[in-house]
């Protein structure tokens, strides 16, 4: 196996994490400016009114 193939996976994971941080910060700022809650909702959040998962 070539060294470039071995380094590909960790490098890809690191680059994905580094690019996700500014994207997450930008989405939080947009969420705040739109006048929603202080924090963005979790991806696994349940509905606030019914307390159940939609669907």
Automatic annotation (TrEMBL):
Region (Disordered): 33-55
Cited InterPro entries: DUF4235
One Pfam family from the record: DUF4235
Designated name of the protein: DUF4235 domain-containing protein
């Amino acid at each position: 196996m070539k060294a470039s193939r071995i380094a590909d996976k960790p490098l890809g994971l690191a680059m994905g994490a580094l690019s996700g941080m500014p994207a997450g910060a930008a989405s939080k700022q947009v969420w705040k400016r739109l006048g929603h809650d202080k924090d963005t909702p979790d991806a696994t959040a349940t509905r606030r009114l019914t307390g159940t998962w939609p669907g």
